[in-house]
Amino acid sequence: MEPDLERLAREYREVWVDNPDGFVVFFNGEVQGWTIDLTRPEAWVAGCIAVAPDGNRWRAFGGNDYDGAKAWQFVYKGNAGFMRWSQCKQEQLPVSTSAPTLPAESEWVFFDGECCWSADAILKNDTTEHRPDLLAALADLDARNSL
Fold it and tell me: Is the pTM of this model over 0.90?
């Protein structure tokens, strides 16, 4: 069973951190420390999970154990996540109407827990909180799966 990182992060903040902002960083389910921002991924190794006060998470990826991670990738909490457009249709999930056209069957979309968002819909919706992170993750998924 996966540890409750949100609860563990909250408990860590209560004991060790005076600042309510920032991220508690985990590796293999154990707290590794706290950081005010995620501007230095090379200070952590790939596989670390940073948990924000609101429960949202970022995963460190790329790089190596010596030089550290290459970047942080945003990961939503709860049942949100990435899926193919065909899966979104198959499960009859609500779809954002922000985009002028529907995505291709094999295109990756983001499900935010309420509806599916294509890259075009995310671009057109100024209120999407983590728009740059989502667009980068969608592009990365498409690139890796087109090889």
Answer: no
